[in-house]
Amino acid sequence: MRVGIVEDDDGVAGAIADGLKMHRIESGRMSRGLDVLTRHQEFDVILLDLGLPDADGIDVLRQLRQVSLVPVVVLTARDDERTIVRTLRSGADDYLVKPARMAELLARIEAIGRRMARSSAAPAPAARSFGDIVVDLGSRSLTIGGEPVQLTTKEFDLLAMLLEEPGAAVSRQQLMDRIWGDAFVAVSRSLDVHMNALRSKLGRSGLIETIRGFGYRWTA
Ligand code: CA
Asked: How far is it, in rounded angstroms, from Cα 105 to Cα 47?
Protein backbone atom coordinates (compact mmCIF):
# COMPACT_ATOMS: atom_id res chain seq x y z
CA MET A 1 0.00 0.00 0.00
CA ARG A 2 1.23 3.50 -0.83
CA VAL A 3 -0.08 6.46 1.15
CA GLY A 4 -0.17 10.00 -0.23
CA ILE A 5 0.37 12.62 2.49
CA VAL A 6 -1.13 16.01 1.63
CA GLU A 7 0.30 18.27 4.32
CA ASP A 8 1.95 21.69 4.20
CA ASP A 9 3.70 21.36 7.58
CA ASP A 10 7.10 19.69 7.07
CA GLY A 11 7.31 18.49 10.69
CA VAL A 12 3.90 16.82 10.65
CA ALA A 13 4.45 15.30 7.20
CA GLY A 14 7.87 13.97 8.21
CA ALA A 15 6.57 12.41 11.43
CA ILE A 16 3.74 10.65 9.58
CA ALA A 17 6.09 9.41 6.85
CA ASP A 18 8.49 8.05 9.49
CA GLY A 19 5.68 6.34 11.38
CA LEU A 20 4.39 4.71 8.20
CA LYS A 21 7.89 3.65 7.20
CA MET A 22 8.40 1.91 10.54
CA HIS A 23 5.42 -0.23 9.61
CA ARG A 24 6.78 -0.75 6.10
CA ILE A 25 4.14 1.43 4.47
CA GLU A 26 5.45 3.59 1.63
CA SER A 27 4.37 7.20 1.34
CA GLY A 28 4.72 10.21 -0.89
CA ARG A 29 4.40 13.84 0.09
CA MET A 30 2.35 16.61 -1.48
CA SER A 31 2.47 20.04 0.13
CA ARG A 32 -0.24 21.70 -1.93
CA GLY A 33 -3.86 20.63 -2.18
CA LEU A 34 -4.06 20.83 -5.92
CA ASP A 35 -1.14 18.39 -6.31
CA VAL A 36 -3.44 15.60 -5.26
CA LEU A 37 -5.64 16.22 -8.27
CA THR A 38 -2.77 15.36 -10.60
CA ARG A 39 -1.00 12.73 -8.49
CA HIS A 40 -3.80 10.72 -6.81
CA GLN A 41 -3.28 7.78 -9.16
CA GLU A 42 0.11 7.12 -7.53
CA PHE A 43 -1.53 6.26 -4.20
CA ASP A 44 -3.83 3.70 -2.61
CA VAL A 45 -4.91 5.96 0.26
CA ILE A 46 -4.74 9.76 0.62
CA LEU A 47 -4.17 11.47 3.97
CA LEU A 48 -5.54 14.96 3.53
CA ASP A 49 -5.00 18.02 5.67
CA LEU A 50 -7.78 20.63 5.43
CA GLY A 51 -5.71 23.74 6.15
CA LEU A 52 -3.62 23.97 3.00
CA PRO A 53 -1.85 26.99 1.54
CA ASP A 54 -3.44 26.95 -1.92
CA ALA A 55 -6.94 25.58 -1.36
CA ASP A 56 -9.45 24.46 1.20
CA GLY A 57 -9.09 20.73 1.77
CA ILE A 58 -12.85 20.18 1.49
CA ASP A 59 -12.86 21.80 -1.97
CA VAL A 60 -9.89 19.63 -2.97
CA LEU A 61 -11.77 16.57 -1.73
CA ARG A 62 -14.88 17.49 -3.74
CA GLN A 63 -12.82 17.94 -6.90
CA LEU A 64 -10.97 14.69 -6.29
CA ARG A 65 -14.27 12.85 -5.89
CA GLN A 66 -15.34 13.89 -9.38
CA VAL A 67 -12.55 11.78 -10.82
CA SER A 68 -11.50 9.23 -8.22
CA LEU A 69 -12.80 6.90 -5.54
CA VAL A 70 -9.38 6.62 -3.85
CA PRO A 71 -9.91 6.32 -0.06
CA VAL A 72 -9.30 9.61 1.76
CA VAL A 73 -8.55 10.00 5.46
CA VAL A 74 -8.77 13.62 6.57
CA LEU A 75 -6.26 14.60 9.23
CA THR A 76 -6.80 18.12 10.47
CA ALA A 77 -6.68 20.44 13.46
CA ARG A 78 -10.32 21.39 12.86
CA ASP A 79 -12.49 19.52 15.30
CA ASP A 80 -15.86 21.25 15.09
CA GLU A 81 -18.78 19.00 14.33
CA ARG A 82 -19.94 21.03 11.34
CA THR A 83 -16.60 20.63 9.57
CA ILE A 84 -16.43 16.91 10.38
CA VAL A 85 -19.93 16.34 8.97
CA ARG A 86 -19.27 18.45 5.86
CA THR A 87 -16.00 16.63 5.22
CA LEU A 88 -17.51 13.18 5.53
CA ARG A 89 -20.42 14.22 3.32
CA SER A 90 -17.97 15.55 0.75
CA GLY A 91 -16.52 12.09 0.32
CA ALA A 92 -13.95 11.50 3.08
CA ASP A 93 -13.74 7.89 4.24
CA ASP A 94 -12.45 8.74 7.70
CA TYR A 95 -11.63 11.77 9.85
CA LEU A 96 -8.95 12.21 12.50
CA VAL A 97 -8.21 15.28 14.59
CA LYS A 98 -4.60 16.45 15.07
CA PRO A 99 -2.51 15.66 16.92
CA ALA A 100 -3.41 12.11 15.95
CA ARG A 101 -1.90 9.14 17.73
CA MET A 102 0.26 7.25 15.26
CA ALA A 103 -1.08 3.85 16.29
CA GLU A 104 -4.65 4.98 15.69
CA LEU A 105 -3.79 6.53 12.33
CA LEU A 106 -2.10 3.29 11.27
CA ALA A 107 -5.04 1.20 12.44
CA ARG A 108 -7.44 3.32 10.41
CA ILE A 109 -5.26 3.13 7.30
CA GLU A 110 -5.02 -0.65 7.75
CA ALA A 111 -8.81 -0.90 8.12
CA ILE A 112 -9.21 0.90 4.79
CA GLY A 113 -6.67 -1.48 3.26
CA ARG A 114 -8.74 -4.46 4.43
CA ARG A 115 -11.95 -2.99 3.00
CA MET A 116 -10.20 -2.37 -0.31
CA ALA A 117 -8.91 -5.94 -0.41
CA ARG A 118 -12.41 -7.30 0.21
CA SER A 119 -14.10 -5.16 -2.41
CA SER A 120 -11.48 -5.87 -5.08
CA ALA A 121 -11.60 -9.63 -4.56
CA ALA A 122 -13.78 -10.32 -7.57
CA PRO A 123 -16.01 -13.37 -7.36
CA ALA A 124 -14.69 -16.26 -9.41
CA PRO A 125 -16.30 -16.27 -12.82
CA ALA A 126 -18.96 -18.91 -12.86
CA ALA A 127 -20.00 -21.50 -15.35
CA ARG A 128 -23.48 -20.81 -16.66
CA SER A 129 -25.74 -23.33 -18.28
CA PHE A 130 -28.75 -22.92 -20.50
CA GLY A 131 -30.13 -26.35 -21.23
CA ASP A 132 -27.29 -28.29 -22.82
CA ILE A 133 -25.26 -25.13 -23.48
CA VAL A 134 -22.57 -24.58 -20.85
CA VAL A 135 -20.49 -21.41 -20.88
CA ASP A 136 -17.50 -21.30 -18.53
CA LEU A 137 -16.49 -17.67 -18.13
CA GLY A 138 -13.36 -18.60 -16.16
CA SER A 139 -11.81 -20.92 -18.74
CA ARG A 140 -13.59 -19.12 -21.61
CA SER A 141 -15.00 -22.31 -22.98
CA LEU A 142 -18.31 -23.33 -24.50
CA THR A 143 -19.74 -26.80 -24.65
CA ILE A 144 -22.97 -27.84 -26.29
CA GLY A 145 -24.31 -31.24 -25.32
CA GLY A 146 -20.94 -31.99 -23.73
CA GLU A 147 -19.02 -31.24 -26.95
CA PRO A 148 -16.54 -28.37 -26.89
CA VAL A 149 -17.20 -25.61 -29.41
CA GLN A 150 -14.29 -23.39 -30.46
CA LEU A 151 -15.01 -19.69 -30.37
CA THR A 152 -12.69 -16.89 -31.41
CA THR A 153 -11.75 -14.30 -28.79
CA LYS A 154 -14.27 -11.79 -30.10
CA GLU A 155 -17.03 -14.36 -30.41
CA PHE A 156 -16.48 -15.36 -26.79
CA ASP A 157 -16.38 -11.70 -25.68
CA LEU A 158 -19.73 -11.13 -27.38
CA LEU A 159 -21.22 -14.18 -25.73
CA ALA A 160 -19.87 -13.18 -22.29
CA MET A 161 -21.27 -9.66 -22.59
CA LEU A 162 -24.71 -10.93 -23.56
CA LEU A 163 -24.61 -13.31 -20.58
CA GLU A 164 -23.78 -10.59 -18.05
CA GLU A 165 -27.50 -10.01 -17.82
CA PRO A 166 -29.44 -12.69 -19.68
CA GLY A 167 -32.67 -11.30 -21.04
CA ALA A 168 -31.47 -7.69 -21.01
CA ALA A 169 -30.88 -5.79 -24.22
CA VAL A 170 -27.30 -4.83 -25.01
CA SER A 171 -26.79 -2.09 -27.57
CA ARG A 172 -24.49 -2.38 -30.56
CA GLN A 173 -22.59 0.65 -29.23
CA GLN A 174 -21.99 -1.04 -25.85
CA LEU A 175 -20.72 -4.20 -27.53
CA MET A 176 -18.47 -2.31 -29.93
CA ASP A 177 -17.14 0.00 -27.23
CA ARG A 178 -16.25 -2.82 -24.85
CA ILE A 179 -14.97 -5.37 -27.33
CA TRP A 180 -13.45 -3.24 -30.11
CA GLY A 181 -12.86 -0.03 -28.14
CA ASP A 182 -14.81 1.87 -30.79
CA ALA A 183 -18.52 2.47 -30.43
CA PHE A 184 -18.95 3.91 -33.89
CA VAL A 185 -19.28 2.91 -37.50
CA ALA A 186 -15.75 1.68 -38.17
CA VAL A 187 -16.39 -1.76 -36.64
CA SER A 188 -20.12 -2.05 -37.23
CA ARG A 189 -19.69 -4.55 -40.05
CA SER A 190 -17.21 -6.52 -37.97
CA LEU A 191 -19.79 -6.86 -35.22
CA ASP A 192 -22.29 -8.33 -37.70
CA VAL A 193 -19.72 -10.83 -38.95
CA HIS A 194 -18.79 -12.04 -35.46
CA MET A 195 -22.38 -12.13 -34.29
CA ASN A 196 -23.37 -14.26 -37.29
CA ALA A 197 -20.47 -16.62 -36.63
CA LEU A 198 -21.39 -16.92 -32.95
CA ARG A 199 -25.00 -17.67 -33.81
CA SER A 200 -24.08 -20.34 -36.28
CA LYS A 201 -21.73 -22.00 -33.77
CA LEU A 202 -24.47 -21.96 -31.13
CA GLY A 203 -26.46 -23.82 -33.73
CA ARG A 204 -29.90 -22.64 -32.89
CA SER A 205 -31.77 -19.60 -33.99
CA GLY A 206 -33.51 -17.34 -31.58
CA LEU A 207 -31.01 -17.77 -28.75
CA ILE A 208 -29.58 -14.34 -29.53
CA GLU A 209 -32.41 -12.10 -30.56
CA THR A 210 -31.80 -9.03 -32.72
CA ILE A 211 -33.47 -5.91 -31.43
CA ARG A 212 -33.90 -3.86 -34.55
CA GLY A 213 -32.23 -0.47 -34.43
CA PHE A 214 -30.69 -1.19 -31.03
CA GLY A 215 -28.73 -4.37 -30.44
CA TYR A 216 -29.11 -7.89 -29.09
CA ARG A 217 -30.54 -9.93 -26.27
CA TRP A 218 -29.77 -13.40 -24.91
CA THR A 219 -33.15 -15.09 -24.66
CA ALA A 220 -32.43 -18.41 -22.93
CA1 CA B 1 -1.98 22.64 7.35
From this structure: 10
